[in-house]
Design a protein that fits this description.
By secondary structure, this protein is an alpha+beta fold. Among the domains are: 49-74 and 98-165, Tetrahydropterin Synthase, Chain A (2-Layer Sandwich), CATH 3.30.479.30; 288-333, no CATH class. It is built from nine helices and nine strands. The strands form three sheets. A four-stranded antiparallel β-sheet has the order 3-2-5-8, covered by helices on one side. A three-stranded antiparallel β-sheet has the order 6-7-9. β2 and β3 form a beta hairpin. The mean pLDDT is 84. It is a single-pass membrane protein. Residues 9-188 form the Band domain.
């Protein structure tokens, strides 16, 4: 009504009201009335903006690659951005210029310049493995770009999601990598076989060493058995020799004893013979009849009777027939 308008900004929009070339009101999320015919309204968005990108570039060896990623930015200095970009709103609340829409292109252009400067110094294989280094480079260099500083833009996040070559190059790389993988697999198989052979050799050497040790122990055991058997035989021989020596000594002593007994027997016999000769020599001087009488002394009656009967059968007094009655015999015995 009569050109008076009411404007209410949200918290993510910085609003500036210009009148006669001067800022009369400004702030984020503010609201006010203004006279439209003599006022200019500038609205700078403060919210972060996520912009995806995909660039085709060539490496140092003239191989084409495609880089995809995303950059997130926000306007940190709205007053400075308003001096560089036309954020003026018309009566209907639309931007009167296409500059705000081209702000994303300016940010992407800065990202593209930083990436191209680095990719052109890399080979294809280096570029395909440079995702981390390129991300770090963007995070360091983008905030220092004068074009972005002049716009009051703050880069909050940047990331690379993929770096891929063209299909034909990818196939060639895949074939090359496949061949290298096959070579690596063959090398791994060869290395594994060598390791297996080496391990088998070590096992055989250990088994041979174990067998040698067992044979050595068996030889030592056999030698110990032989030594024990020899020691046993030596002890047995010594015992047999001692027994033979003892037996020989006993036989020698027995022979000495027999010889001594023989000597003693001869001596006793000689003594007895001498005694008998002496007695016989003494008896030769005595009359036979006396000897008989002497010999009869102390004899038993039956012996005397037998001697008397024997005398009756000898010599001149021999009797031809002799009858002895039982009574006479009993009286003679009594």
């Amino acid at each position: 009504m009569l050109g008076i308008k009411f404007y209410k900004a949200d918290p993510s929009t910085f609003v500036m009201l210009f009148k006669n070339g001067k800022v009369t009101k400004q702030g984020a999320g503010t609201s006010f009335y203004y006279y439209a015919p003599s006022s200019s309204l500038v609205a700078v968005p403060l919210s972060s903006c996520e912009v995806p990108f995909a660039f085709r570039m060539k490496t140092e060896d003239f191989q084409e690659i495609t880089l995809q990623g995303q950059v997130t930015f926000r306007i940190a200095e709205p007053q400075q951005a308003a001096t560089m970009v036309n954020f003026t709103l018309d009566v209907a609340g639309r931007y009167v210029s296409e500059d705000p829409e081209k702000l994303e292109e300016r940010v992407l252009r800065s990202v593209q310049v930083v990436i191209r400067n680095q990719i052109e110094t890399m080979s294809l294989q280096q570029a395909l493995r440079a995702s981390r280094s390129l991300t770090e480079l963007l995070q360091q260099n983008l905030p220092e770009r004068h074009s972005l500083k002049n716009l009051g833009i703050d880069i909050t996040e940047v990331s690379l999601t993929s770096i891929v070559p063209n299909p034909e190059t990818a196939k060639a790389l895949e074939a090359d990598v496949r061949e290298q993988l096959l070579k690596d697999a063959d090398s791994a198989i060869y290395t594994r076989r060598l390791a297996s052979i080496d391990q088998e050799k070590q096992v055989q050497e250990r088994e041979l060493e174990t067998e040698k040790a067992i044979n050595k122990q068996q030889q030592e055991l056999e030698q110990q058995k032989l030594q024990a058997e020899q020691e046993k035989m030596r002890k047995k021989f010594a015992m047999d020799e001692e027994a033979l020596t003892a037996k020989t000594e006993a036989e020698r002593r027995r022979n000495e004893l027999v010889e001594l007994e023989a000597v003693n027997t001869r001596a006793r016999s000689d003594a007895k013979a001498y005694d008998i000769r002496s007695q016989l020599q003494a008896y030769e001087a005595i009359d036979i009849e006396r000897l008989k009488v002497m010999s009869m002394s102390g004899m038993k009656p039956e012996t005397l009777i037998a001697q008397a009967l024997e005398n009756l059968t000898k010599g001149e007094n021999r009797v031809g027939n002799l009858n002895i009655s039982p009574e006479l015999l009993q009286s003679l015995v009594r």
